[in-house]
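Hi Y.,

Following your request, here is the sequence exactly as I used it, all 476 residues.
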Amino acid sequence: MTAAAVVPVLLAGGSGTRLWPLSREQYPKQFLPLLGESSLLVQTLQRVRRLSGLQPPLVVAAEAHRFIVAEQLRQAGVSGATILLEPVARNTAAAIAAASHWVQQQHGAQARLLVLPADQAIADSEAFVAAAGEALLQAAAGHIALFGIRPTRAETGFGYIRTGAARGAALAVEAFVEKPARERAERYLAEGGYWWNGGMFVFSAGRMLDELGRLEPELCHHSGEAVAAASPDVDFLRLAAAPFAACRAVSIDVAVMERSPHAVLIPLDAGWDDVGSWRYLASLPAGDAAGNRWQGDVLLEAARDNLVHASSRLVTLLGVSDQVVVETADAVLVAARDQVQDVRRLVERLRGQGRTEALQHPRVHRPWGWYETLALAERYQVKRLQVHPGQRLSLQMHHHRAEHWTVVRGTAEVTCGERVFMLTEDQSTYIPVGTPHRLHNPGKLPLDLIEVQSGAYLGEDDIVRFEDVYGRSGGS
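Below is the corresponding structure, written out as tokens. Let me know if you'd prefer a different format.
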């Protein structure tokens, strides 16, 4: 008898607003190298690779992040993955339902899903592998296995799971508890029998779809329709928009886990953190005797118990305590340490004011590479662009601006009107208003260039695309 397939499912659709200003809506925390040189998504993939006999991963992501996911999978050397695109955000129940339908369609009802958020940190990979192995055994026996994190502090920012009697290596799930007040969290820690809800699950596709059909029949039906009518698009599989949008926006905990008699808990003690707020900086080693912890170029004087992250310049603190300070190229956050869970309120205000700082970094990622604005004033803008090896921008034109390109590293193949020619380091060219043009990196090294734009209007929506290898529409 052939063993049932095991498919890692990575949920990569979160927005990470509590880690603003480093995490932005168009480039959220799961794609950032917050803990080491690799992003949290790549670290999750590397952790999963320690398990043997797995199918290529299924990554559930937002439409806006599709090229970021594809590029990070490529850089991580992951081949054969399926990137399932959500047309709208509908919380974890709809995402997991769609993943379950797809896995059943591809591998059968007995196939098991190892569902992992793509934005968490786990220090002890061996402990994770051992717990995942036990969870897979529980799923093969018809259970829905949840990973329960052993609490290390009285945490008010996490949900809890109360457990009962042992079921072999697992524990019976008695209740889910919402984020508690401080006094109750301290009681949970003292009493034991309570675990942080890590949002990680293992189950067979058939078991989850049976439970969804019983508990959330409309959601199960609509998500199945979205998968059945999904359309392939280059490297992606797009869920059908109308049926997926009809799914109720609800978490998998509320939709299924809190009501299913099949749930069991697998204890996990592996240095887990959800990296859900700037409080995660407290896990860094103390940088000095005063309890300060920091990343980047930081200088402290007469300061105590501060958490500091510097991205692009020197950050100094003098005579302050218990602060969180986060610096990026275009925004700075200063918050009391006990207020960092509320950073999302600032992001909501920025969105309400139409501020771009809530949406994107100064460095904007595109499927071909990235660009960042170095200077912007009336009638001119200066950008730095990097084009990845082998990639090309769309064949496009602008109605309101001209451009001047200067190569600073690498080799550029330039299309300007009817001409196609090469530029190398320190060479430049001029693109007149209204002229179709394209930039291509034919080399094996990144192509860096400086672009100077001039004209009456410099907005990113002044783009008419004639041809695009990434399937983007004719307008920006």
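The chain has a mean pLDDT of 93.

Thanks again,
Q.
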